[in-house]
Specification:
This protein is α/β, with parallel strands linked by helices. Helices cover about 45% and strands about 15% of the residues. The chain has eleven helices and eight strands. Helix 3 packs across helix 11, helix 6 packs antiparallel against helix 11 and helix 9 packs parallel to helix 10. The chain is globular. The two termini are about 40 Å apart. Bound molecules: ligand L6N33NVT and fe (ii) ion (2 copies). One fe (ii) ion binds next to loops. Catalyzes the ferrous insertion into protoporphyrin IX.
Length: about 325
């Protein structure tokens, strides 16, 4: 029997995968960075201070001073395709779409800024995705990253009449696919260097130390990744935490302190990698690649190499395909 003319069009059923990363400003200038920081630093999952205390600090101090400093940093890493974080996440999404084939619609979104999670989730549902895997690209679980991305996706569904079924990608900090990809990729990058590093420093994004006491597994996940990777690599591995923000005590040791202390211990040739970042971004290219190198060489270090993240290179995409296919089991045919 034909449908009545008033019946809405129902698109053919699809499975969707939404890759999610943190977010980045739309331009390396002060107004765009201020907009980005205002959204990011207003998230109570990121700054866990009572709003009545934090809001005046954010608007009266942080958003008046930090945007200029950060915009200068962003201008040093900006590319013809825009922010490295957004450009690489888009390439990962395109490459994963090619690997998964027509059965799966792959898209990408940012937790802060554009393209937004509500916008992309709504577009996926409109395109017929009745089942969607949310894939926040953070190997180590953290409430300030994984949970807030999932929160916003769930909040988006709260406004939908016909909700898609959702799955979320679990942390993959100890998965064989991830550790193996890092091992092979790091070994290849070390091999290509024109010097032999005495140490490999694994630098993770820091978090306030109290989040560990409150039960966030992030610290333990970072340590486990480092242990599993260290067991497989021939080089001695150290671990540190970067990007301290504010006055509270953060996870230690701090990356800048480790870099400054190495030369006095006779360690003057090092490589540094950031396995917690699935894509290179401000924190890896500028903080580790530019500032970290200055700190190390000013303290007497001689040779310094920043290794790239897995990004959309073969090892990274093989790993992403494997962990995504595992979570899609029962939704798509096995490869
Ligand atoms: C209290 C503040 C912050 C917490 C907590 C935090 C956790 C956290 N962040 C990442 C990943 C990224 N952070 C990036 C930039 C960035 N982070 C903070 C602050 C906190 N992060 C700020 C203020 C900024 C902006 C830049 C600056 O002003 O310094 C980025 C890079 C974004 C880009 O555009 O390139 C990433 C990625 C993780 C994984 C994490 C907790 C585990
Ligand atoms: Fe951060
Ligand atoms: Fe721990």
């Amino acid at each position: 029997m034909p449908l009545p003319a008033t019946h809405p069009v129902i698109p053919p059923r699809k499975v969707g995968v939404l890759l999610i990363n943190l977010g980045t400003p739309e331009a390396p200038d002060v107004p765009a960075v201020r907009r980005y920081l205002a959204e990011f630093l207003s998230d109570p999952r990121v700054i866990e201070i009572p709003r009545a205390i934090w809001k005046p600090i954010l608007h009266g101090l942080v958003l008046r001073t930090r945007p200029a400093k950060s915009a200068h940093a962003y201008s040093q890493v900006w590319t013809e395709h825009g922010s490295p974080l957004a450009a690489i996440t888009k390439r990962q999404s395109d490459a994963l779409a090619g690997r998964l084939g027509d059965e799966v619609l792959v898209d990408w979104a940012m937790r802060y800024g554009a393209p937004s999670i509500p916008d992309r989730l709504t577009a996926m549902k409109d395109a017929g995705c009745e089942r969607i895997l949310l894939a926040p690209l953070y190997p180590q679980y953290c409430a300030a990253t994984t949970a807030t991305a999932n929160d916003l996706a769930f909040a988006t569904l709260a406004g939908m009449r016909w909700q898609p079924a959702l799955r979320t990608l679990p942390p993959y900090h100890d998965s064989d696919d991830y550790i193996g990809a890092l091992q092979r990729d790091i070994e290849a990058q070390l091999e290509a260097l024109d010097f032999e590093p005495q140490r490999l420093l694994l630098s993770y994004h820091g978090m306030p130390e109290r989040t560990l006491r409150k039960g966030d597994p992030y610290h333990c996940h970072c340590r486990k990744t480092a242990r599993l990777l260290g067991d497989r690599l021939k080089i001695t591995v150290d671990t540190s935490f970067q990007s301290r923000f504010g006055r509270d005590k953060w996870l230690e040791p701090a990356t800048d302190a480790v870099l400054k202390a190495y030369p006095a211990q006779g360690i003057t040739r090092i490589a540094i990698a950031a396995p917690g970042f699935s894509a290179d971004c401000l924190e890896t290219i500028e903080e580790l690649g530019i500032r970290g190198k200055e700190e190390f060489t000013e303290a007497g270090g001689r040779d310094y190499a920043r290794l790239d993240c897995l990004n959309d290179r073969d090892q990274g995409m093989q790993m992403l395909e494997a962990i995504v296919r595992r979570e899609l089991a029962g939704w798509i045919a096995p490869a």
